[in-house]
């Protein structure tokens, strides 16, 4: 499973106050977010009859809708 996260504008995050930052034209791009981009392997667990990740996903609460 591959999850690729991106931010727009480049330096913006929902969990931080971005109002003081002055944006430049170069900031108005979609930029990859390595903190929330990850690659995991799913394995079938016969005890639960579910597929489970080989290790937990990082905390990406900035990308979840409230």
Automatic annotation (TrEMBL):
Q: Please give the superkingdom of this protein's source.
A: Bacteria
Q: Where is the composition biased (Basic and acidic residues)?
A: 13-29, 49-66
Locate the region Disordered.
1-29, 43-66
**Name of this chain's protein:** Uncharacterized protein
| Species, as recorded | Sphingopyxis soli
